[in-house]
Fold this protein.
Amino acid sequence: MRGFIVVIDSFGIGYAPDAQKFGDVGANTLASVSKSKYINIPNMTKMGLYNIDGVSNNSNEKNTASIARLKEISMGKDSTIGHWEMAGVISNSPLPTFPNGFPKEVIKEFENEIGRGTIVNQVYSGTKVLEDYGEEHLKTGKLIVYTSADSVFQIAAHEDIVSPEKLYEYCRVARKILKGKYGVGRVIARPFIGEVGSFERTPNRHDFSIEPPKETMLDVLQKSGKKTISVGKIYDLFAHRGIDEYYLTKSNKDGILKTISIAKNCDFDGLCYTNLVDFDTKYGHRRDLDGYAKALNEFDYYLPELCNSLNDDDFLMITADHGCDPLFKGTDHTREYVPLIIYGKEIKPLNLGTIEGFSVVAKTVCSLLGVKSNFIATDVSNLIKNK
């Protein structure tokens, strides 16, 4: 049997009950994107997206998939914590953030280790930091180091000054330094190209994540002899652990097409786990409403081909790791419920209501694939599976 998970990165469906703690009361990624004149997602609508708890019901159709609204338990709203919880690991404390930049001792150790200087060390927008400091980087060769509201240490460098491979090497050094109280979720390589006034980031981004503190769904499946395949940044988010085979991607479309190709051409027993990151990085954080809507349309367009590529006993889960409302204040993620859509020829079309914890994904995936797990989470496999 094969399972497929597609994470629409940042696709929240309404602010969570504890959104006040995160300053996110009122956020609703789906409601905002649905206001775009470009939105056209008939296939997810048929599956039951608009029939999920708390979502404005714009559809009179019965859902063709099992659906649920998931409430996050972990204390965080970033990609790392969201994916960890989805894979069965609850984070009781948020990963550290550095709103005033990283301590001098961290930056000094990093510079000494790599033999190169750095500039910025502030919270910054990834595109704005290139506008403000790209020219200085070209003149001095110093790395642009910055962070955000997320738990990240980001390093930007022009590909003519520092090759992507060398930048990855620098990131590995930073990853070794950033542990304990400085243990950010991700060190991110941000290569860019272009001239002053027209810099642009390239698809050669690479994330170097902190290792999950406990066994994840991927570890459990791998140890049980199931094959684990990742598409997109899943490989990085889990620090390369528990994954047999991986495919990096350069865009949402690339990730969708690679997942379809695996479904059509790969005969395996296990899980294919895909993340579509552009929803978050290109549209959510940049508060690009119409861009987000068009990206959803693109995914929806390919969804029938993915579904038609499933074997009779396969299943597909569509979910998210957090919200990033393109009409909300600021540029940060938003604390929201996320959807869970489960589709397959042997899956009953049920409305499962609201479920506590993203870990329902891990527990249910393992059960559907016939693997015993110890995740403390809801298991809906017996409810949705036709017998």
